[in-house]
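Folding problem:
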Amino acid sequence: MGKMGSFAAADMKTLQQQLLELQKTNEDFLEKCAKELAARLLAKVIKRTPVGDYSTEIEVVAKRSSKKHKKGDTYKKKINPSGKMGGTLRRGWIAKTHEEAAAGSGKPGANEAVQYAASMPVRREGNLFVIEIVNPVEYASYVEYGHRQTPGRYVPELGKRLKKGWVRGKLMLTISEREIQALAPKVLEARLKKVLEGCAK
């Protein structure tokens, strides 16, 4: 039979107190883990979310020679006569309403994703800690999963006629969720290791 190492009763009491503290902070720890995973998911999905391009190509005749064109050459140039900028869907991941996403400007980054995830409520359902990530932009599900359209219909916002009957979804959230599910065990293991190292001190 193997021998147990020696230990003092005081060490056991200290370990017991540390384990009780760990149990108290367990819920807080799990909420922090959920928020970290939510922030990582948001960072991934924001990068994957397409931004609307409202510019149109026009043919231009060069008025003078340059490095790229000779005088009189025709070339294509993109212009945006409407002045409308894309990015509403992308900003929707960290907005509470469609209007808030539409009114925003710029591209949300990883810092915004972390801040937004930190402010999100965590709901406990049995042994699960749930954070609900919703994009409130009205057409988000159509971009995610795809949609039907009428070929030949003119869309003034795009300045074009529709060509396809079905537009495939971008699956930006679906793909990001799969990546996070694969990454989650490593993230949780690293966080747990830090907590246990703190208890050992």
Remarks:
- The longest strand covers residues 56-61.
- The first helix runs from residue 9 to 24.
